[in-house]
Amino acid sequence: MTQTAVKLSDAAIRRRMIADFWYHFKQNRGAVAGLVVFVLLVFAAVFASVVAPHDPTMQYRDALLVPPVWQEGGRAAYLLGTDAVGRDMLSRLIHGAQYSLFIGIVVVSIAVIGGILIGTLAGFFGGWVDTVIMRVMDVILAFPSLLLALVLVAVLGPGLLNAMIAIAIVYQPHFARLTRAAVMGEKAREYVTAARVAGAGNMRLMFRTILPNCLAPLIVQATLSFSSAILDAAALGFLGMGAQPPASEWGTMLAEAREFILRAWWVVTFPGLAILISVLAINLMGDGLRDALDPKLKKG
Amino acid sequence: MIRFLLTKLLYLVPTFLGITFVAFGFVRVLPGDPVLLMAGERGLSPERHAELSHQLGYDKPFLAQYFDFLMRLLHGDLGNSLVTKKPVLTEFLVLFPATVELAIVAIILATLIGVPVGVLAAVRRGSWFDQVSMTAALVGFSMPIFWWGLLLIIFFSGILQWTPVSGRISLMYFFPPVTGFMLIDSLLSGQKGAFSSAFSHLILPSVVLATIPLAVIARQTRSAMLEVMGEDYVRTARAKGMSSGRVVMVHALRNAMIPVITTIGLQVGVLMAGAILTETIFSWPGIGKWMIDSIARRDYPVVQSGLLLIAAIVMIVNLIVDLTYGLINPRIRHK
Fold this sequence. Notes:
By secondary structure, chain A is mostly helical. Helix content of chain A is 70%, strand content 0%.
């Protein structure tokens, strides 16, 4: 048997990697289902103003606490009913998807960028740089994340932007730790030495040579953080420290609905269900990503 | 072992100092003037304001204030609440048992259900039980527990009227706290119906608080079991003709429990964060609700010391987990 080496272009290699990834990803039915829901969510968020039947802040004074359409007293104009000031639940939920995706993207971006920078520095240089950085990360990790985020928001002032910054700060050490461990593992490998001998500077070594080989665990962690960010931001909103009314953020909607829990089940049930479904979909995707990207972590 | 313990303890010193710095620093930069807050509605003259600031040390430089804070901390003085004027530590010690009771019941619930479910799912890998339970675990893991609590209230308190909506015990009963744990105190009081009242108040909050740890423990137990069951010694045990029940219980489960115990221990932080939400929903008078209320009232010393105490507790519990891990797994100790 003779093997002939085929020289592939970079683009071809990339295409093969993606095909390989997709092959493993679609083995996991849950992950595919999660992806479908996530795509729908993105669609709802992007085209919210087209898809939503009503303006999410419009208060219909003749339709206060109207139940969902299938229940007695429900109206076809308000499929999922209205809240205490007559705003359409469905429209608010659709617009709420914008908040959740936005929160996820912003929080994960800040946490990933910060964590990668800090973790790469610590892992690459080692010594006292590493010690100092990792001690600081330990301090952040010593606090329960929601509590620390709460106090941070109290310092910065309640609001969505501050809530996102607070959550990102709290999540950042996880990325720093992962990056550090991966960088330390890769640093001693031959290809890094080869690059160094070839004259690559520290910056190039850190970010062009080593980092791309450490991405798999970071991507998985980023997916999990995306869903946790949605959960924590909703929790902060629920506690009155996140997005402020009349924003149609799901946690804030729940906080406003609390006093009606025994009178109007729908104002409480739907926002929470929206949070649960989004978080679940992203976590399912995360499981699939982990299986496809990292065979070592593969469950069972 | 002693050496292992000492290195672990030594590692904690800088972390603990960091925690004190964070707790102090954050609260120092909180908006609002503590002296004005203390004066309340009446307000006070600029001279009196300066005098009070000086008295309380608020006019000193930041680092000097931090040093004072550390010194007082070493003497066990965590300051007084601006609102109730009582020492923070006293308030904390009154409320802490309520949170501990809730957390202990929750973690017992999560372990008693999570471990057997995880084991069974691993043993019957691929069966409908495995699929249903792991789907349920992922749902539990993704659960916004503040909403879950509200749903349970709607169903069990609203529709079925089985359980009370809030608090730790019905107002009908009164007895002095002995242990601070309502379940035990109500039994000791000897009052008829007190225990069942305390118990019915505890059910929903503990179920809510147990949800995420339960899901995590079930998933972790399953994957730990699967890993162990592929090991040579399990195969050897099977080959020797041992019954599969014995293989699972004696050989596999024992070894799989090592990472599971760590996971259970690490849930303390999750429980503390969960307690904030759970206690708010059920008006449970514990430290989670206390922290939320104090942040809303801008009660600096409480937020500061509460943050410090909670972080210290999480840290100590994690240390204990580390040490037990070293005890059951000598390989860790000698690394």
